[in-house]
């Protein structure tokens, strides 16, 4: 060992997420997620796709930026259901619209 010591300022690192330039970058990435999600969303009535949006304000505590699709059935579009037809096949398969859009935009879920 050469005796080098590194002390990390954990509070400063945690606070980086609230920096305006970091927030701008995260907002741009969320916009990319929204764009990919809207392009790949399944369409029946178009309501699900139309509701996909970036939440206006970041989470005040964590600084996280969120993308949402606030229709009551969005969870079923994302993860599917266990409902099956008479042959045992799942009726509503998972689409993973938001998860795949996040991956395509280089994010992590």
Distance between the termini: 38 Å
Tally of helical segments: 5
Task: Give the integer mean of the pLDDT values.
Answer: 88
Order of helices and strands: HHHEEHH
Helix content: 40-55%
Model description:
By secondary structure, the protein is mainly alpha-helical. It is built from five helices and two strands, in the order αααββαα. It has a two-stranded antiparallel ribbon. The two termini are 38 Å apart.
Task: Spell out the key features of this protein.
mainly alpha; 109 residues; two-stranded antiparallel ribbon; elongated; 5 helices
Summarize the structure.
With 109 residues, the protein is mostly helical. 42% of the residues lie in helices and 4% in strands.
List the helices and strands and how they pair.
Blueprint: H1 10-15, H2 20-40, H3 47-51, E1 53-54, E2 67-68, H4 74-79, H5 97-104
Antiparallel strand pairs: 1-2
């Amino acid at each position: 060992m050469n005796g080098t010591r590194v002390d990390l300022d954990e509070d400063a690192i945690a606070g980086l997420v609230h920096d305006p330039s970091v927030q701008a970058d995260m907002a741009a990435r969320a916009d990319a997620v929204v764009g990919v999600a809207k392009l790949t969303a399944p369409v029946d009535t178009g309501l699900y796709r139309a509701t996909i949006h970036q939440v206006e304000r970041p989470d005040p505590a964590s600084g996280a930026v969120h993308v949402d699709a606030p229709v009551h059935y969005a969870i079923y579009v994302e993860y599917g259901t266990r409902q099956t037809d008479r042959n045992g096949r799942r009726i509503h398969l998972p689409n993973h619209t938001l998860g795949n859009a996040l991956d395509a935009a280089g994010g992590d879920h």
